[in-house]
Design brief:
The chain has two domains: 2-162 and 237-279, Rossmann fold; 166-230, 5' to 3' exonuclease, C-terminal subdomain (DNA polymerase, domain 1, Orthogonal Bundle), CATH 1.10.150.20. It has twelve helices and six strands. It has helices at 6-16, 23-45, 58-62, 68-76, 81-98, 111-124, 165-175, 203-211, 218-231, 238-250, 260-266, 270-273, and strands at residues 2-5, 48-52, 102-105, 131-134, 149-153, 158-160. It has a six-stranded mixed beta sheet, sandwiched between helices. β5 and β6 (158-160) form a beta hairpin.
């Protein structure tokens, strides 16, 4: 199983061509990236599953400051992010309707949750079938605790290998994630949104907390629980997990094989028409 972090892959195309918001160009770039990853990994890992980010996120209900800074940054950006996301979700719908791949987009969760739960699915039902996660996101490293999971970074164009994924997850929880607006465990919830300098988390504190999560008091343990809920990919609500697996099991897109060529012709994807076999 090849699990594609769709939004991340699509946004890379935007970053590379932010001065030319052309729908046809972005469609071509996104589809070509998918074609390349499928070619690269299909022989060893099977078919791709396209995993998208829902427009809402259960983490915002748990922690309102989650990714709050990203919205502010995009408002200041010279990129028309409204148009960017319109194209990204349009192409996702086109993939669902015209390509022979399972496509999962659950409105209340991220692709991270979908990928993590499909990895769990392979443990119970898939007889440990090999899984390749195509994403540069460091959060997926924690899934390497399973022997059947590998990760490829499109940004670095190489495999991401972590020898101790459980330790890596613990340290990520303790340190927080500035890109997602999650402070370290010594700092308050509003650190990033209010521009409050975080309390430095030194290695001696990390070691103490590694041995005993209560070592630095109740407030720090409370913040650990906050961060674990947001960062540990096993923490998604059961309702979200059930919807992911039900959606995955119900889909059968094999009949879409006959739609790929007409779709590429209709959308004038001339260069991809020559490689249509790579999609099916």
């Amino acid at each position: 199983m090849i699990l594609l972090d769709y939004n991340a892959i699509a946004i890379v195309s935007v970053i590379q061509n932010k001065n030319d918001l052309n729908e046809d160009l972005f469609r071509h770039l996104i589809l070509n990236n998918i074609r390349q990853y499928r070619n690269k990994f299909k022989e060893s890992y099977g078919e791709i599953v396209v995993c998208g980010d829902g427009r809402k996120n259960w983490r915002k209900d748990v922690f309102p400051n989650y990714k709050a800074q990203r919205a502010k940054s995009r408002q200041k950006s010279d990129v028309d992010w409204g148009e960017v996301f319109r194209i990204i979700y349009l192409v996702f719908e086109e993939l669902s309707e015209n390509f022979p791949y399972k496509t999962l987009l659950i409105e209340n969760c991220e692709a991270d949750d979908i990928i993590a739960n499909l990895v769990e699915y392979t443990q119970e039902f898939g007889k440990n079938e090999p899984v390749m996660i195509v994403s540069s996101d460091k959060d997926f490293v924690q899934l390497q605790k399973y022997d059947n999971v590998s990760q490829y970074s499109p940004m670095k164009k190489q495999l991401i290998v972590e020898k101790n994924p459980r330790r890596q997850l613990l340290e990520l929880i303790l340190k927080g994630d500035q890109s997602d607006g999650v402070p370290n465990v010594l700092s308050p919830d509003n650190s990033f949104v209010d521009g409050i300098r975080q309390t430095p988390l030194r290695q001696t504190a990390i070691e103490k907390l590694t041995e005993d999560l209560n070592a630095l008091g109740e407030a720090v343990y409370r913040n650990y629980c906050r961060n674990k809920k947001l960062i540990d990919l096993s923490e998604a609500p059961e309702s979200v997990k059930s919807e992911i697996l039900n959606t995955f099991e119900e889909q059968d897109r094999w009949s879409n094989r006959s739609k790929v060529f007409p779709f590429l012709v209709e959308k004038r994807c001339r260069m991809l028409i020559e490689d249509v076999e790579d999609f099916i």
